[in-house]
Design goal:
This protein has about 280 residues and is α/β, with parallel strands linked by helices. It has nine helices and 16 strands. Helix content is about 30%, strand content about 25%.
């Protein structure tokens, strides 16, 4: 082992400034350097912070997209509360990319705007994409490649950064990949954790995923192990439930009940008896 740099040790002892040693992608930091770093910025108080990777899963028709689009609408208005509980700290732009239910995007956006009474400026913060990227493609000839998707966000979003990037669903973003294979999903999660973060380090990436027949999250454990937050949506009769299954940085929260009520263009989300939005 090489002897420590005397100047480095002297600076540590005297509390002086130390230049962080780095080799390639590897940076070695002291306790003091970690302490001097900025604290995580929570966009949604007590729930979501910048840079998070979030997986929301559930059976088909459980209401996953209802929850997500309600979140995006809530995040256009600081001071409002998502799910009648979590305080929104700042207005941030979002991108919702879906490969399912494309024909319903127009009705969904109308209902979302009406249900939240969004102004033009607020509704303009949400951008809809009727195609999802191929997370395992970097090809210049693939119109669904991830680099082209990220370029589209950078070019067309009304601000300099996305607050949320929603991918609906993971299966449609990984066609040809065996989600039950650790190696395959390890590569996919590496893209979500690193490739997207390299372009938009502050963005919260939200991935919609499915349950297996037993009601647990489908696919390899790589998915659960990589996520900062795992949220589950279930349905029992007319009642839907939104809950935190696992979290790395928050204590979690008690399950929240909601219902889907008929709307003018689509459906309305009714959180705990307080109708706050209309979403498909």
């Amino acid at each position: 082992m090489a002897n420590p740099d005397p100047e480095f040790l002297k600076a540590l002892i005297e509390g002086g400034a130390v230049q962080t040693p780095q080799t390639g992608a590897f940076t070695l930091k002291t306790f003091d350097q970690l302490e001097a770093e900025a604290d995580p910025v929570y966009v949604v108080d007590g729930l979501l912070k910048e840079g998070d990777l979030v997986v929301i899963y559930g059976m088909p028709k459980a209401g996953k997209s209802f929850v997500v689009t309600d979140l995006l609408a809530s995040c256009t208005r600081p001071g409002s509360r998502f799910a009648d509980q979590f305080l929104i700290n700042e207005a941030i732009p979002s991108v919702y990319a879906t490969g399912e239910g494309r024909g319903g995007l127009k009705a969904r956006s109308r209902e979302l705007k009406a249900g939240h009474n969004l102004t033009f400026a607020e509704s303009d913060l949400i951008r809809w994409c009727d195609s999802v990227p191929n997370l395992i493609s970097n090809s210049d000839t693939d119109p669904r490649s991830l680099p082209l998707f990220l370029d589209a966000i950078a070019e067309h979003l009304p601000t300099d950064r996305p607050g949320f990037i929603v991918l609906d669903t993971l299966r449609l973003c990984t066609v040809g990949v065996d989600e039950n294979q650790t190696r395959d999903m390890g590569m996919v999660m590496d893209v979500l954790l690193n490739s997207i973060r390299e372009t938009f380090p502050r963005a919260i990436t939200v991935v919609l995923h499915h349950s297996n027949k037993g009601g647990t999250m489908g696919g390899s454990l790589q998915i659960a192990g990589s996520a900062d937050l795992i949220l589950k949506v279930t349905k029992n009769g007319n009642d839907h439930q939104f809950e935190c299954e696992d979290a790395k940085d928050i204590p979690g929260f008690a399950p929240i009940t909601f219902q889907l009520m008929p709307g003018v263009h689509s459906a309305q989300v009714d959180w705990q008896g307080q109708r706050v939005s209309r979403i498909n």
